[in-house]
């Protein structure tokens, strides 16, 4: 801890945290919850905000309360009190990986994590971020300090604390590649401790924090590299963009961040407020991971439906022992769902720039997005016999 206190002073604290303990209540608070929360410092309580205002799909009903926590201690106090009282909770960061029901008020309290300090040591390459730090600000900070390892994760929306939850990844890099440990509030015991990354079962778009109430991430610690170079380029599209000579080449971190942001922007994968292609939860389905025989069966189906040329182009990448990862976006497209499906005027459509993003065109309800998800999933299953699994967390709805 001494190391980081020193470094915070030397390199500055990038923070949205309040240093003055305060509690604010807006709206007509749920009176049964008020006594539980009233003496907790560094929170503000809002009973009027809806999940549509807090999520990037812009759908979702109003919870009983939203508690905004600007320090880790406020998160601990709020979550442990509400857990002890048996009040259902939703831990919320940037709301960019959530699909929430909107047909009736939600019987839960949203705990929004807003503590956002970031500190780093440019010599050792160790970076620490509180859970509420905006993830892309963390990447920007690392890149500005010449630290490599997370530049390929530029532009992913949401908070630092959520990055281990589904082991975020993009352009050949996952947070698992650099995550040392997380500071975790264990919701069963109320204890806070640093938990090594190896204890999180990190895998493709998965950890044992996803779909569970195991704990709340209060901070993350990353081991980055201090030479000013990126992680080895592993993703063909990015390597080509940077005119890399061979696989595994490393490039200056700032150049890689810039290239990633440009590639993502072209696909509508960077949040822009008025751009409905970005009113999404990012990739709506995970890429199917199948054994080679299954992949070959799917390729035969593509051959019958689309011909030899298309079948030979079917993307498939090694994904661990005897496993291949297919492209959900490619399968969706080949199943007949083009970008923008089902077309102008529909409240929920595929992004006009990426077939893997389901988007709200401004007036969609949760049911519109769920109906589109079912149509896509069923269409891909009918054509290729592959069941696509949703990537975001679904709350109060089922596919
Ligand atoms: C345009 C767009 C592009 C995207 N691109 C990518 C991409 O390239 N790669 C990728 O992997 N994802 C991508 N995503 C998905 C999403 O941005 C990530 O999953 C992100 O990490 C979610 O962060 P969040 O803070 O918004 O989480 P939220 O949506 O707020 O929460 C998601 C889940 O994590 C839990 N959670 C949040 N914070 C914590 C915490 N501190 N402790 C414990 N649990 C917590 C929540 O309870 C919920 O279950 C994209 C999303 C969008 C909208």
From TrEMBL:
Active-site feature positions: 205, 283 (proton donor), 391
Cellular location(s): Cytoplasm
Pathway, per record: Cell wall biogenesis; peptidoglycan biosynthesis
GO cellular component: cytosol
Enzyme Commission code(s) on record: 1.3.1.98
Record bears the keyword Cytoplasm: yes
Entry-linked SUPFAM superfamilies: FAD-binding/transporter-associated domain-like, Uridine diphospho-N-Acetylenolpyruvylglucosamine reductase, MurB, C-terminal domain
Domain of life: Bacteria
Coiled coil: none
Record-annotated FAD-binding PCMH-type domain positions: 59-227
Catalytic activity: UDP-N-acetyl-alpha-D-muramate + NADP(+) = UDP-N-acetyl-3-O-(1-carboxyvinyl)-alpha-D-glucosamine + NADPH + H(+)
Biological process according to GO: cell division; cell wall organization; peptidoglycan biosynthetic process; regulation of cell shape
Stored PROSITE patterns: FAD_PCMH (PS51387)
Names of required cofactors: FAD
HAMAP family: MurB
Family: Belongs to the MurB family.
Name of this chain's protein: UDP-N-acetylenolpyruvoylglucosamine reductase
Natural source organism: Corynebacterium poyangense
């Amino acid at each position: 801890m001494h190391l980081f206190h020193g470094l915070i002073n030397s390199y500055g604290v990038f923070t949205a945290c309040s240093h003055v303990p305060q509690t604010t209540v807006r709206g007509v608070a749920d009176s049964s919850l008020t006594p539980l929360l009233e003496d907790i410092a560094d929170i503000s309580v809002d009973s009027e905000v809806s999940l549509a205002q807090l999520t990037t799909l812009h759908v979702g009903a109003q919870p009983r309360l939203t508690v905004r926590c600007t320090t880790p201690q406020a998160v601990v106090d709020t979550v442990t009190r509400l857990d002890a009282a048996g009040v259902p909770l939703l831990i919320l960061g940037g709301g960019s990986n959530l699909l929430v029901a909107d047909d009736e008020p939600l019987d839960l309290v949203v705990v929004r994590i807003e503590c956002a300090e970031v500190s780093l040591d440019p010599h050792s390459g160790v970076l620490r971020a509180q859970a509420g730090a905006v993830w892309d600000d963390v990447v920007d900070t690392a890149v500005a300090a010449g630290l490599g390892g997370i530049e390929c994760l530029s532009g992913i929306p949401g908070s630092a604390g959520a990055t281990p939850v589904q082991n975020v990844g993009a352009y050949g890099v996952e947070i698992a590649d650099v995550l040392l440990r997380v500071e975790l509030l264990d919701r069963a015991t109320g204890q806070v401790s640093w938990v090594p990354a190896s204890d999180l079962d990190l895998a493709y778009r998965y950890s044992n924090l996803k779909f569970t109430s195991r704990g709340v991430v209060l901070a993350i610690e990353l081991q980055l590299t201090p030479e000013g170079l990126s992680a080895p380029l592993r993703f063909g599209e990015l390597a080509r963009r940077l005119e890399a000579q061979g696989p595994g080449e490393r490039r200056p971190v700032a150049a890689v961040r810039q290239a990633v942001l440009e590639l993502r922007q072209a696909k509508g994968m960077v949040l822009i407020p008025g751009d409905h292609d970005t009113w999404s939860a990012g990739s709506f389905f995970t890429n199917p991971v199948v054994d080679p025989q299954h992949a070959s069966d799917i390729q035969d189906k593509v051959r019958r439906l689309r011909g030899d040329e298309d079948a030979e182009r079917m993307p498939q990448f090694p994904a661990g022992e005897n496993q291949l990862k297919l492209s959900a976006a490619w399968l969706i497209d080949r199943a007949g769902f083009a970008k923008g499906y089902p077309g102008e005027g529909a409240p929920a459509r595929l992004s006009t720039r990426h077939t893997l993003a389901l988007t709200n065109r401004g007036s969609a309800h949760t049911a519109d997005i769920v109906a589109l998800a079912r149509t896509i999933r069923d269409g891909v299953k009918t054509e290729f016999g592959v069941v696509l699994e949703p990537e975001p967390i679904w709350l109060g709805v089922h596919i």
